[in-house]
Amino acid sequence: MTALDLLQQLHKLGVILTPYPDSTMHCRTPKGVLTPDLLDEIRQHKQELHALVEEWSERVAIAEYDGGLACENAQRLAWQCLLEEVHT
Fold first, then answer.
1. Helix (H, G, I), strand (E, B) or coil at 26
2. Residue 76 contacts residue 64 (beta carbons within 8 Å)
3. Could you tell me the end-to-end alpha-carbon distance of the chain, in angstroms, rounded to an integer?
4. What is the chain's mean pLDDT, rounded?
5. Closest by CA position to 61, among listed 42, 75, 49
6. pLDDT digits (tens), the chain, 88 positions
7. In angstroms, rounded to a whole number, what is the distance separating the alpha carbons of residues 32 and 21?
8. Buried b (16+ CB within 10 A) or exposed e, 17-35
9. CA distances from residue 30 to 10, 68, 87, 88 in whole angstroms, order as listed
10. Does the reported pTM lie above 0.85?
């Protein structure tokens, strides 16, 4: 599983990852969602996940503040851009 595949799976499960400048991430998740296997995948891809989530967060901020988009629209656009960039 790639880091992007894992991020997509976590997103579908309602997991919210928040990157911090010190290369740590906060993980907010619905109760019972994170299985031991999923936690292991997160640990294995921690650096890649951090980079993807940080890039996504930056794109959201730019689209929201500079582009004038509503938060939900900015998040959707940032997700689409991230997926397109990784797949091209």
1. strand
2. no
3. 18
4. 88
5. 75
6. 899 899 989 988 999 888 888 888 888 999 999 999 999 999 999 999 999 999 888 999 999 998 899 988 988 888 888 777 766 5
7. 28
8. bebeeeeeeeeeeeeeebe
9. 11, 30, 29, 32
10. no
Interval 40-59: pLDDT, tens: 999 999 999 999 999 888 99
Q: Residues 36, 27, 85, CA angle at the centre, nearest 5°?
A: 100
For the chain, the domains span: 3-11+27-87
Query: At a CB cut-off of 8 Å and minimum separation 6, what does 49 contact?
Result: 3, 6, 7, 17, 25, 42
